[in-house]
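--- STAGE predict ---
source: upstream dedup step, 1 unique chain passed
mode: sequence only
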Amino acid sequence: MTKDDAIDALAEQCERLVLQLEELCERSGTRVDWLTKRAATNRRLIYLTMVGISLDVLLTIGLIVIGQNVSANAREIANVQERTSTDVLCPLYAQFLTASKAPPPPYYTPQQVADRAKGFKVIEEGYRILNCENAASSH
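--- STAGE serialize ---
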């Protein structure tokens, strides 16, 4: 093998090596492009996840505040109901029960007397359910 043959063989191998390097660079470029697109997609997904978590935290805080308000309203309603029972209904029921002790008017028919007695039984039951005996003693 002469010097020129050796140089030609070396040049041919260099050419093949350059082609392989170009092919490798092209594949690497494709890989880099793919990685760049994937990184951009990941950044978008991370951003959307952060927005979702932020919304979740805000909604949770909002629900806690609403829950606190509902609890406060429920306590206030219970207090109003208690005051209504003790300050309004109990004295009214006591008046009705006092009236129940009076004899029915003489012109009432037996049916009216029975209806009156039934009505006063309902009032007496309401007086008991509202615990007005204890409410009267606490005032």
